[in-house]
Specification:
about 20% strand, binds flavin-adenine dinucleotide, 14 helices, single chain, alpha+beta, 3 domains, seven-stranded mixed beta sheet
C-alpha cells in the first residue's frame, strides 16, 4: 500500500509528477528531493496542447495566476521552413484529417500545390496573428493552442504550486540507493540522511539515477532513426521590430535543424545537429551565421534519443528525461511527462494504491508504444525532406529506419492523403495523431499515385473556405495585443472559478 512517495528531482518533470500525485491523491505524502547545485536542464520551452490542458483542466491550476507567474506566450503550431515547398504550417487543429462539406475528397487531396489557410489556426499563423476577435474585440482563445514558456519561469511557477499543495521539498544530493524487496528501499543523501518511501519517482533528468543507474534498466537507443545528438543553444532580447509569432519555427540546417521559440521578451534559438556529421565549432559557426545576435559563448547540450524499455520497475517509476527523451523536433517531452503522470495517477487510484505487476506491465507497454510512435513520427520529418542536399540530409533520406511505417508509406503512395491512413499508424494516439503524419506527407509533397482533378464547383467551395479563414485571420489579434487583454485586471478566464 503506497502512502509515501519520494520524487527525485525538481525540474519540470519532477514538479509536474509531485503536483499531479498530490493534487489527485491528496492523502499521499509527497516529498521532492533535489540537488540545488545541479540545478535543472534549462531547456524545454515548447509544448503541445496537452500541456495547458493538463495544467488547467486536469490539475485545476488557475489560468490567471499561471499567466502572471510563468508568462507563457501562445503556440498555435510549428512553421516548418522545410522541404520542397520552402515552408508549410502545422497547426494544432485539423487541416488534413478532415473533409470540408461539399467536397468529395478529404482536404489533403486539394493541397498538392497550395497548402495554406486550410484551418483557422494555420491562417492565423500565416497572418502573424494569434486569435480571431470576438465581437467586443477581445481574443477568441480556443483550446487548440500550446505554450512557449521559459524553463526557469515554468519551474518556479510549478514549485510555488507544489509547495502550496503541501508537497515537501528537501534539498540534498542523492549519493546512493539501497536495494530492497520492492526495488528501492531507501535513498542515501550525501550528508548521510537516509530517506525511505513506498514509491520512488525518478525525475533526475538524463542522469536517471534510480531507473538507469541503480536498477540498470536497459535503454533502447533510437540512433537508427534519429541521428541528431547535440544542440547549440542561444538567444537574444527581443527588439522593438521583432514581432512575437504564435508558433515555433523549425528550419533545416546543413546537419540538422534550428528552432526559434518566441518568448515575450526573448527569442530562443537552438541548432539540433548530428555530431557524426559536423563538429561543435562548425555547428556554432553555422548557427551564428544564421543568428548573428546570439552571444559568443555557445551552450552545447548533449542528448541521446531513446528510452528505457520499462519506466516502471518495482517501486520506481521514471518520469521525464530520466525515462527517455526523443530529440526536440515537435517538442514532445512535456507532453510525455503529463501523459505519464496521468497514467500513473489513474493506475494508482484504480489499484487502490496497491499496484499489481500487470498494472506495471501495462504502463510500460503503453509508454513503449508512445515512445516508438514519436520516434517514427520524427524520423518521417527527416526522411521526407527532399530539398536539402548535404551529406546529413542525404543520409536521412537513405538511412532513416522507418520500418514500422512501411505500411503507412505504401498506403499513402498508392492512395494519397486519405483518412484510411490512420489504420496504418502503429502505436497509440497523442497530440499528433493522423493529422501530424498527413501534414508531414502533404507538407513535404510526398508523391502519391493519382492526383485528384477537382471539378470547378469543388474548387470554389475549397477556396471559399480558405478565404474565410484568411479574412478572419487578417482582422485577428496578435500576441502582444492578446497578452494585454489577458493581463487586464477585468479579464475573466473561462474555466477559472
Ligand atoms: C536540446 C533540448 C531541447 C529541448 N526542448 C524541449 C521542448 O521544446 N519541449 C519539451 O517539452 N521538452 C524539451 N526538452 C526536454 C526537456 O529537457 C524536458 O521537457 C524538461 O525540462 C524535463 O526535464 P527533467 O525534469 O526531466 O530534467 P531536469 O530539468 O534535468 O531536472 C533534473 C532534476 O533532478 C535533480 N537531480 C539529478 N541528479 C540528482 C541527484 N543525484 N540528487 C538529487 N537531485 C538530483 C536535479 O537537481 C534536477 O532538479 C528539450 C531537451 C533538450 C536536450
Amino acid at each position: 500500500m503506497i502512502e509515501k512517495v519520494i520524487v527525485l528531482g525538481s525540474g519540470s518533470a519532477g514538479l509536474l509528477a509531485a503536483l499531479t500525485l498530490k493534487r489527485k491523491i491528496p492523502k499521499l505524502e509527497v516529498e521532492i528531493v533535489r540537488d540545488p547545485d545541479l540545478g535543472v536542464i534549462g531547456v524545454g520551452e515548447g509544448t503541445t496542447p496537452f500541456f495547458p490542458h493538463h495544467l488547467f483542466d486536469y490539475l485545476g491550476i488557475k489560468r490567471k495566476r499561471f499567466y502572471q507567474m510563468a508568462e507563457p506566450t501562445w503556440k498555435l503550431g510549428i512553421r516548418f521552413l522545410w522541404g520542397t515547398r520552402g515552408a508549410f504550417d502545422y497547426s494544432f487543429s485539423q487541416q488534413l484529417d478532415k473533409q470540408f462539406a461539399g467536397l468529395k475528397m478529404p482536404n489533403g487531396f486539394f493541397c498538392d500545390d497550395e497548402f495554406t489557410d486550410v484551418d483557422q489556426p494555420a491562417a492565423l499563423m500565416r497572418a502573424g496573428k494569434a486569435f480571431t476577435r470576438l465581437a467586443n474585440q477581445a481574443p477568441d482563445i480556443q483550446g487548440w493552442h500550446a505554450f512557449h514558456i521559459e524553463n526557469h519561469k515554468l519551474v518556479e511557477t510549478l514549485e510555488t504550486e507544489a509547495r502550496e499543495s503541501r508537497v515537501k521539498i528537501t534539498d540534498g544530493k542523492m549519493a546512493g540507493a539501497e536495494r530492497g524487496e520492492a526495488g528501492i528501499a531507501a535513498i542515501h543523501l550525501a550528508d548521510g540522511r537516509r530517506l525511505e518511501a513506498d514509491l520512488f519517482v525518478d525525475s533526475s533528468g538524463f542522469a536517471s539515477e534510480l531507473l538507469g543507474k541503480a536498477l540498470e534498466e536497459p535503454f533502447e537507443d533510437f540512433g537508427k532513426t534519429l541521428f541528431c545528438d547535440r544542440a547549440v543553444v542561444g538567444g537574444w532580447q527581443r527588439g522593438d521590430q521583432e514581432s512575437i509569432m504564435a508558433y515555433t519555427t523549425a528550419e533545416t540546417m546543413d546537419s540538422g535543424w534550428c528552432w526559434k521559440i518566441e518568448h515575450e521578451h526573448f527569442i530562443n534559438r537552438g541548432y539540433v545537429y548530428c555530431s557524426d556529421m559536423i563538429s561543435d565549432e562548425q555547428a556554432f559557426e553555422e548557427f551564428r551565421r544564421k543568428n548573428p545576435k546570439v552571444p559568443d559563448a555557445p551552450r552545447i547540450v548533449r542528448f541521446r534519443s531513446g528510452f528505457y524499455r520499462r519506466s516502471w520497475v518495482g517501486n520506481v517509476v521514471a518520469i521525464g528525461n530520466s525515462a527517455g527523451f526523443v530529440e526536440p523536433l515537435e517538442a514532445t517531452a512535456l507532453m510525455m511527462v503529463c501523459g505519464a503522470c496521468r497514467t500513473l495517477v489513474d493506475m494508482l487510484q484504480q489499484a487502490l494504491l496497491d499496484p499489481t505487476p500487470s498494472c506495471r506491465d501495462l504502463f510500460n507497454e503503453i509508454k513503449l508504444k508512445e515512445w516508438r510512435m514519436i520516434r517514427d513520427f520524427l524520423g518521417l520529418h527527416y526522411q521526407l525532406n527532399n530539398a536539402d542536399d548535404t551529406p546529413f540530409w542525404r543520409r536521412c533520406r537513405e538511412e532513416t529506419d522507418l520500418s514500422e511505417l512501411q505500411g503507412l508509406l505504401e498506403y499513402y503512395t498508392e492512395n494519397g492523403p486519405s483518412g484510411f491512413c490512420r489504420n496504418r499508424i502503429p502505436g497509440t494516439t497523442n497530440d499528433f495523431g493522423l493529422e501530424g503524419f498527413l501534414v508531414m506527407l502533404v507538407g513535404n509533397q510526398t508523391p502519391y499515385r493519382k492526383r485528384y482533378q477537382a471539378p470547378a464547383q469543388e474548387l470554389r467551395v475549397w477556396n471559399e473556405r480558405r478565404s474565410l479563414h484568411a479574412n478572419l485571420a487578417r482582422k485577428g489579434i496578435d500576441v502582444k495585443e492578446a497578452l494585454a487583454f489577458v493581463r487586464h485586471p477585468g479579464w475573466q478566464w473561462h474555466g477559472d472559478s
